[in-house]
Amino acid sequence: MQVYLTADDPSAVSAGALVVPFFSEAPLEGIAAQIDSAIGGVIADALAIGDIRGKLGEHVLVYAKDRPFRRVLAISLGEQKSFEPHFLARYAGSAVRYLGRRNVEKIAIALPSAAAGQEAVCASFVAEGAITGSFDTTLYQERPERRLATRELAILSHGLDAPQLERGIARGTALGEAVNLARRLAVTPANDMTPTHLADEASKVARDGGLEITVLDEEQARGEGMGSFLSVAQGSNQPPKFIVLRYNGDPSSKELLALVGKGITFDTGGISIKPAERMEEMKYDMSGGAGVIAAMSALAHLKPKLNVVGIVPATENMPGGRATKPGDIVKAMNGKTIEVINTDAEGRLILADALCYANKLGATKIVDAATLTGACVIALGHAASAVITNNDAFGAEFLSSAKPTGERYWQMPYYEDYTSAMKSDIADLKNTGGRPAGTLTAAAFLREFVDNTPWIHLDIAGTAYLDSDFPWQAKGPTGTPVRAFVALAESLADARATHPNGARASEVHV
Questions:
Q1: How many C-alpha atoms does 132 have within 13 Å on its Cβ side?
Q2: Contact partners, residue 310, CB within 8 Å, separation at least 6
Q3: Other CB atoms closer than 10 Å to residue 476's CB: what's the count?
Q4: Residue partners of 83: CB distance under 8 A and separation at least 6
């Protein structure tokens, strides 16, 4: 999808539809009021009689006879006092999905008056939302019933700072395309998204963005002592790949942010095999790795002054004659031995060596993301991802930078009790501590492989993919945590200068 700026007068813009915003408790204002007056006040009438009450995302469509924009779609931004710029991503995404299903190829969209003074951040969210709203999950359908028709979205510059709007559009376009990349990687079935294919996608990202890339094969991983990672790969005929992407945004600095993502391209559970029901969803078990690759793609285009390494241990987890068995003991890269109690607790095994490798590369801060535990879904549902950290200051910085993006995170505690639950009678650690506090015992296990490096673990099991669609988003993969990864990188690059979506810190409501 192409998102661009237009200086056309709102009442004369040529498009299949004109989209205008309104707030639930306020009269129509700005372009919405201007256009409604021109078409006879029908939007105000719909609000007055209570056909729509103005809840965030509610909308009304009217036809504009003899007007160059043909239709007007008014979409609510909720209560004005509660407005946050990231609502505009849903606003734009809802417009694209609603109108795209009605064969509207070109949309013109207006910003609310609240965008004045924070044009860059608002335009960024509109561009991001429009692009992510256009994501199509019918990749394998020969004749999809309702493929979205929208190809262009023009943002009206009327009365706003055009250079800042242009800046925001460039920012949002890069981020939206990165989010969609993560979603495409995740939604692709495992026969087409093997570890080798995932490494090929990472190589394409490196070529397009000028990144450095190294892909370790099984022999090289063995040479690094990655026994924990390789133990998961033993049962599969697909060769494992250990993917390392490098962005050098500040060669003079010794600071290095490591983004680490779980890359299980399909998870059967191994010998501890999962139930057959809904096992097809286990193609999404590489969503953390997809998020890392996509975030590195975005950083290559946005160019923050920071050094970042993206690490994705990629393998299938399959049963077979060579597969790891419950009770086996494996050794991680840092020399710690692990008793494998349950082969379906495999994500932490591959992340263990990835975290060790991040330290080997000299990472000064580490964030990992993984669809790690069903316990996280029980605790937080699909509303938020869990955050566990060994450094509260780093955790606070992450939460502060991630909040304005619209992705939601909730910090959970760490106590030594959780590490005690992971002690083995025969090895240094065991890979599961049982049902109680499963998200936190898994994080405690990972903590054993980061040494003293400031580290954050994101459990995205409940947020990486969703079972139902929304007005602004197709069902399936969400692209979490691409936005938060990019936000953190930019925050670390210059916390005082630039907000994650292109605005100065003073421009953002948090």
A1: 34
A2: 243, 244, 245, 246, 247, 258, 259, 260, 261, 292, 293, 295, 296
A3: 18
A4: 23, 77, 112, 114, 509
User: Helix, strand, or coil here: 281?
Assistant: helix
CA distance 148 to 348: 39
Beta strand 307-317 with 409-411 is: unpaired
Token code pair at residue 316: 């299938």
Q: Where are the domains of the chain?
A: 2-179, 193-501
Q: Which residue has the tokens 């691409």?
A: 482
Grade residue 510 by pLDDT with cuts at 50, 70 and 90.
very low
pLDDT of residue 176: 98
The alpha carbons of the chain give a radius of gyration, in whole angstroms, of: 24
- Interval 249-296: pLDDT, tens: 999 999 999 999 999 999 999 999 999 999 999 999 999 999 999 999
In the annotation, is 222 catalytic? no
How many residues belong to the chain? 510
What percent of the chain shows pLDDT beyond 70? 97
Whether a cis peptide bond, with omega within 30° of 0, leads into 481 is: yes
- CA distances (Å), 244 to each of 24, 354, 373, in order? 48, 10, 24
- Residue closest to 211 by CA, chosen among 182, 248, 254, 177: 248
b/e sequence 315-337, b meaning 16+ C-beta within 10 Å: bbbbbeeebbeeebbbbbbbebb
Residue whose entry in the numeric block shows the structure tokens 């998870």: 267
Phi-psi region of 507 (alpha: psi -120 to 50; beta: other; left: phi over 0): alpha
Tell me yes or no: is domain 193-501 CATH 1.10.287.3510: no
Q: Please tell me the predicted confidence (pLDDT) of residue 447.
A: 98
The residue annotated as part of the active site, out of 67, 90, 183, 348, is 348
Q: What is the DSSP letter of 475?
A: S
Exactly one of 274, 331, 336, 408 is catalytic; name it. 274
Please state, in angstroms and rounded to a whole number, the distance separating the CA atoms of residues 205 and 86: 27
Helix pair 195-209, 162-187: axis angle to 10 deg: 160
Is residue 97 within 8 A of residue 129, CB to CB? The reply is no
The residue among 427, 284, 256 whose CA lies nearest residue 357 is 256
CATH homologous superfamily, domain 2-179: Leucine Aminopeptidase, subunit E, domain 1 (3.40.220.10)
List of long-range contacts for 493-498, beta carbons under 8 Å, 24+ apart: 493/249, 493/250, 493/304, 493/305, 493/306, 494/304, 494/305, 495/397, 498/304
Q: Is 53 a catalytic residue?
A: no
Contacts of 354 (CB under 8 A, 6+ apart): 229, 242, 260, 311, 312, 313, 368
Contact 74, 23 (CB under 8 A): no
**pTM tops 0.85, yes or no:** yes
For 387, the 3-state DSSP assignment is: strand
